[in-house]
Amino acid sequence: MRKITALVLATAMAASLTACGGSGKTSEPAATQGAGEAAKTEEAAADTAAPAADAASYDDLDAVSLIAADNSSKGAAAQLFGELVAEKVDTITGGKLTIEYFPNSELGDDGDLLRQQQSNDIQIVVCQTAPVVSFVPGVAVFDLPMIFSKYDGDTIDKVLNGSDSAFRQELNEAYEASGTHLLGILQNATYRLTSANKELNTLADFKTLQIRTMNNSNHMAFWTAIGAEPTPLAWSEVYFALQSGTIDAEENAADTIVGANLNEVQNVLACTNHILYANQMSINKEAYDALDPAFQAALNQAVSEAMAELRPQLADIDANNKKTLQDKGMKLIEYDNAFYDEILALDTVQKLYSDIDTQCGGLGTTLQDSLESAAK
Fold first, then answer.
1. Tell me: the pLDDT tens digits for 113-126?
2. CA dihedral 261, 264, 265, 268 (to 10 degrees)
């Protein structure tokens, strides 16, 4: 569907919000929170569970529908996350709150989706953190190269989603100040990798590498800092640019590389592990505030349960997709700690750390302190 569909659906939803006891705004679709106790399949997910709500609390509420979308490749973690939340919200509320989900760029690329979210034409966006920086500057904290590399998924989750996490509290404030509400961040210590048409065995091999990145100045600064030549390019253009030799490489998570069939135009998969593969789910703040508290609770519960269910799968997804790419002919290159230490010791990379922390108003320092504390 095209963006006009979202506009039509948003107009239709506005009427339902007036009657649901929200903020009283008739032009804004509503969002949600949870009912019932969140699934406690792991401690970190339980930490973000929403307060219980009686199922009967939905009986007197008018039905509300939200629009959600992603720009991921088919079957990637973002799509799994968004569709599972939609399924759970429907089940929790008995169909009183629903999410109409548009995966795989049906409503546009990340920038399009985030702009539509900003104007409340769509309400929920699932995407990786990099595109969000242009809309929520504090999210640049996730651009700190290799900051998560020495921590396991459980430790990272406590920091990103824990209710008592100082970092999460500050990140929430950054989202709210930008007119959005952060629902959750799905990850399990897997990373973005580099696919290329040349072997990347040493730091010197990255010099002058023409690599496609997302349109994120910090990502581009990192590649420049290690000698490569980054080029931002729309995702829809990447396959053909690699095929034609316009660019030599790109960086993405393994499942995205598989979903886009980049093995057909790339022969090397390098585990550079430079950025945590994390998918954030956020909602327009006015839409969220307009929801009845019972619906807010249902949405929060659905997000917590979905993260608890999907997190254990992410490491398997990563490993299976790496194997798939190897089976399709790509050579896997892995690095020891000396490789990462060499990169982090570069003056150019240390300066980037300082610059990003300044951009984030000190969120980088909070993140480092929170990770160290959570790991104890």
1. 999 999 999 999 99
2. 90
